[in-house]
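Model it.
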Amino acid sequence: MLRRVLYIDLDKKDTWIEERYDLFEEWLGGTGVATQLLLKECPEGADPLAPESPIIFSIGPLNTLFPVVTKTVATFKSPLTGELGESYAGGRLAMAMRFAGHESIVIRGKAAGPSYISITDDKVEIKDATSIWGIPATRVGFILREVEPGIGRRSIIRIGPAGERGVKYAGVMVDTYRHFGRLGLGTLFGSKNLKAMVISGTEDVEVPDPKSYRKIYNKLYKIAVQTDSMEKYHDIGTPININVLNQLKGLPTRNFQSSSFEDVEKITGEFLADNYLFKRVSCAHCPIGCIHIGMLKTSFSRMHEFEIRKVSYDFELIYALGTNLGVSSPEGLLELIEACERNGLDAMSTGVVLAWATEAYERDIITPQETLGVPLQWNNVEGYLKAVDYIVKMPNDFYAALAEGVETASDRYGGKEFAMNLGKNEVAGYHTGPASIVGQIVGVRHSHLDNAGYSVDQKAAKKQLNPEEMVDAIIREDDSRGVFNSLVGCLFARGVYTNENIIEALGSVGIKKTEEDLDELGRKIFQEKFRFKRREGFDLSKIRIPERFYQTVTTMGIVDPETVESMLEMYRERRGWHR
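Modeled.
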């Protein structure tokens, strides 16, 4: 198996390939390798949007070879937080990189004008993108499909106007329905005058032990499709959690003013599946079909009765643009999701920013003059759609502040006690208790997916866990996900890829690991990520926790600030860190 890193210098229009067996031997692939490349390639203290700040993509040794190992990781310095940026996306990108023969791609510099990168095997071209600059992300893929080769083994990733204009939480659309959403990768693309990348390949992948490979492949496939380990992701998808968390009082509503939504019925996963589901699709080499596509039917013109738009939805989008904004209409929800897709915005950050702005507007912190007459009110979909447009266009100081994220906006206008972010990253859709708060604070991306603290809360609600046990659970997940994200697998398949199965799968492709090796690797990857974070100025002891977390009931009841502080102190001690 090749262990190649492709380097692309946009300034010089130069490309080259390096064989890095040493790097992949030590760090496996995926996030382990990408973190090392980021530490080397990103100058200490660099402006995230400066030409010297790199973009790095990486896949792992099991991508394309095994079911549900479908992701690609991107690492970069985040323009939103100023420290570690890391995002994951499915679609066809990992497959395209594998067949092109590149396990990692490093992008340096800044193109002289609007450009896109075309990669076919070892052939790399930097092409003019003037004609597609300013085009919505949802349209760019259709255009590039007509001019770029590689159908079937091709991935097209691109940004929308938000990334071009420098919204700090702009994302990158991957193929049609997947994204590098969090922490502003799309903003880096825009800063480099990079509109898109098209990757395709014709290489084949050989395995050293076909018999062992077939045996473990069949075992993993059967677990994925013939047991209930992933059944819910096909049937309802992640939106199944809307009803569950609503009943548990863990679903953020109207900017975390409540933890349940009284008008939830028409935006649950079950209701959307029964009334709006158009189809299910999968990432490349995934048999599950967890991507749920809704059908949005809207008035088009007098001569044409309806326009049909296909919009993907999941739990986080329903929270961010639904319950957190008090939106109870499925059509309104899908309209807001589609607006984020079109503009290339991270939906979670957008929803949290709009929720803060709505509460600030209610409290007269923000005036109609600052909103340019847009009525920011709960469940006012038309107002929110206009606000999304203004966030991208930034017609005044207020919308320019919103484009920098909720932490910056609240710095300038007030309302920090209800500006819902941790580590400057807008928070996810869980208000379950102290483990969720602590998990997002200590997570390498300040993401709910770093260590699933919300899941620890839910377990503690069923069987009492003391703070020490919750911290230990968070640390175990911190470390184990470093290994899993180096493969790079879909986190929905964590139950399929146990350590035993990972070891067997790696062995079939010529990589020998023990359980002790994996445990040690996970710890090392986590510490290396925090090495980058601290290098770029992150200080865990100085993180700000909005008061709202302590004012609204959670699944675990009202959270005591002292509990969170004691858990953070335990976490530091167990990691061997000192203030």
